[in-house]
Design goal:
Two copies of one chain form a homodimer. Chain A has five helices and two strands; from the N terminus they run H-H-H-H-E-E-H. The first copy, chain A, is mainly alpha-helical. At the A-B interface, helix 1 and helix 5 of A face helix 1 and helix 5 of B.
């Protein structure tokens, strides 16, 4: 088997892994008091609600762009009620599941320019979206702890 | 090609991705003042030095265990001078590079029990180690910001 065909992980398993992270991130969003989601922060950083909206404007748009070449997705990160963020989150979950199988298997290692400005192999671009979610969710954990709220366990993804 | 042979990402590209993260984490460790690395924290959480030591006791030991079945690695996370943490980090970088090609390609999707207690497919166990690094490094960013220190850019991995 040629080296480029030996998988570390398959697309199906990677989607499962990502959706596990997204279930955890949903619990972190839900753990915030409604009045803190877009107001509380530490160290002059953004509130967690803005980070969650950023995640939403990266996940489906990245996959949609990789399939269609259309990168014109909404980038609004404006404050909104927690229930609206959770509703958008759940919609993204279903959309990701339906879009993912439409990515041609060869495309993951092809280079493209995401959002018209970020070049990279598609697998690295998708990992960047996931890693960005983990990075900011970790910051949300600190916010929750500072608010005296126990965050959901990091290792639970079901 | 059977579905289990379609890569989202290959082992070589995944190691590059991981080492990119590890270069960024090294810069975050280096950004802490020596006297804050094992003392400063927020929300009753661990100081960043303890998190960095945890990363060290997960990365090489996970890969070593996956190759050899030997899970008896050091788990010391005791405080030590920043230069010692950075030296251990650099040693791990070289060890990871030399161990990684020794993992048989088939093994990534096989189930094993890491450290005698964490069952999972090897690709998920390795992603857990990387994700744990990203998660805690994100927390280190909050600590640095709270200390008035600008963290290194998240997107720079070189």
């Amino acid at each position: 088997m040629p080296p480029e065909s030996i998988p570390f992980i398959t697309p199906d398993a990677l989607l499962d892994h990502w959706q596990g992270h997204r279930r955890l991130t949903r619990r972190v969003i839900a753990a915030f008091p409604d009045d803190k989601l877009f107001s509380f922060s530490l160290g002059g950083m953004r509130p967690f609600g803005a980070m969650a909206m950023e995640m939403l404007t990266m996940a489906v748009p990245m996959v949609q762009g990789a399939i269609s070449g259309d990168w014109n997705a909404s980038t609004s990160r404006d404050p909104r009620p927690k229930q609206d963020v959770l509703r958008l989150w759940d919609e993204s979950t279903g959309t990701l599941n339906s879009l993912w199988p439409q990515i041609p298997a060869q495309r993951f290692r092809e280079t493209l320019t995401a959002f018209g400005q970020y070049p990279g192999a598609l697998h690295d671009l998708i990992l960047y979206v996931i890693d960005n979610e983990i990075h900011h969710r970790g910051q949300g954990y600190v916010y929750l702890r500072a608010l005296g709220i126990e965050p959901p366990p990091f290792y639970e993804r079901g």
